[in-house]
Amino acid sequence: MNVRRTAAVLAAIAVLGGASAPAASAASPSPSAPPLPAALYGTADPTYDGVWRQSLALLAQHTVGVRPAVKAVDWLAGQQCANGAFAAYRADPKADCDAKTQVDTNSTAAAVQALAALGGHDAQTGKAVEWLKSVQNEDGGWGFTAGGASDTNSTSTVVGALAAVGAKPQETKSAKGHSPYDALTKLSLPCDGKDGGAFAYQPDKKGALAANADATAAGALAALGKGFVSGPGKTAGTPTCTDADTATAIAHNGTAYLAGALEKTPYLKSAMPGATSQPDYGNTADAVVALAAAGLSSAAEGPLAWLEKNAADWAEKSGPAGYAQLVFAAHATGTDPRAFGTVDLVDKLGATGPAPQSAGKTATDKVVSQTDSGNAVWWFVGVFLVAGIGIGFLLSGRNRKRQP
């Protein structure tokens, strides 16, 4: 299944009642289920990832200069609860959120990144960020749900949201005075041990850290202060792990670990149970983004070429989130997403949801929504691109692996 961050999705499933994820979430809704909203991207069951995949789809379209459909943006904004948080999916957004509404940091932070990029949603993103700050853990990080133990993937997704609204992650501190980077540093493996430089998702019950490639791609990008969309960084030298506890150092160490792992095979392997040695396309795309953002373009070349050759079928099965991840990887490396191997990622992504307003390759527009007495009033403010800026780009990816 297309899960951006496996551990996060499993956590969501546990919170929502321990449902059997692969069978329930990978399939299309049953004939007896309510019809999916016409504004929603993807046709798979959105229970665990509706907001996530919508956010990635809209952000990827914006990144490549496509102006999304108004109703698609409106649907995402309408998923927000009164307290500012987002749940993974609310079938009836007109109903008030209550104690049974399972809001989470990942859906909220992903929505912030998308709505902030689209523009015109300052009130919604501001409220969402305030909620995120209110549930920051004492160690400076975030768990999937409010009060949950901090994990690398959730913390990195929130860092991306903070950066998207112009907040400085290093200045976003808990009541104990800890920033997100303090939490990420504690989740980074020391250089003198096995898998030095990698990030763990969370410590185990004994406090030990185990390398997780998905968490490493997310953590490294966050330590660079980046969100889902990031351009290539300044060219760096040979990646090596060095002992230091600054954000820059742990980002460097994380990408050094990824570069080493990708020297063995041009793809990262799935951590899903029973998937030994199987490629993890989403995690590989996220690693390409992290490597490029860190200035390690040469290390990103091999996995990028592998994705161009092999990822088309995976993306088709994964749906909008999968296509978005590949768009982000293409942008991070200066690759044309409309000619990704033999695939036009932009057209493929667009086909998974409502037709966009425009399909320009370079112009970006802000989509603004206001509601007056229940009637949506829309207008659009075009903005000029700075000369020389290339097509837009991502994350995570933070590939928190979520359902399409």
TrEMBL record:
CDD domains per the UniProt record, alphabetical: ISOPREN_C2_like (cd00688)
One matching Pfam family: Prenyltrans
Gene3D superfamilies reported in the protein's UniProt record: 1.50.10.20
InterPro entries noted in UniProt: Prenyltrans (IPR001330), Terpenoid_cyclase/PrenylTrfase (IPR008930)
Name listed for the protein in its UniProt record: Terpene cyclase/mutase family protein
Keyword terms: Membrane, Repeat, Signal, Transmembrane, Transmembrane helix
Keyword match Transmembrane: yes
Highest taxon listed in the record's lineage: Bacteria
Membrane-spanning residues: 376-395
Domain Prenyltransferase alpha-alpha toroid: 55-170
Keyword Protein transport: no
Signal peptide: 1-26
